[in-house]
Amino acid sequence: MTLTNSRRLSALALVGGLLAVLFVAPTASAADSQIAPSSITGGIKITKVVYNPSGDERYTPNREKVYIKNVSARSKNLRGVVLSDPAGHRYRLPSYTLGSGRTVIVHSGSGTNGSGHLYARWNTAVWNNTGDTARLKSSGGILIDRCRWSGGGVSVTC
Ligand SMILES: [Ca+2]
């Protein structure tokens, strides 16, 4: 069977479109890796999670806190790093320079991001009191650190 010229052109256009998609995809992931360089995956730790603060944290979500520390010798920008739980809550950190040895606290509720404090704006309790896992990943999905607990307390040190 012979294709007419117009069908040939359509087929070429389709192939061209597929190639365009194939070439666009790697460019997008390259942009992501620029947001969070691979060096971000080293030296950043979740050191503590306050998962069951006093009161009912569904109404006071800022009392839930995740402590993220830079244990490396260099400042790191946390931009693009994602804090998540297994239930699908995700917080993509903004541009925030964390100096060597410094800690920033991520609250579950809303507030004004500033020195030492970031707000995930989930506006509800996220960290399960009966056990959960907090994960930090690079924007490229590489696991940076995680902190697990089985519950029964107020906080966990990792
Ligand atoms: Ca909780």
TrEMBL record:
Residues 39-150 form the LTD domain. Pfam families: LTD (PF00932). The keyword Membrane does not apply. It comes from the Bacteria. SUPFAM superfamilies: Lamin A/C globular tail domain (SSF74853). Residues 1-30 form the signal peptide. Keywords: Signal. This is Lamin tail domain-containing protein.
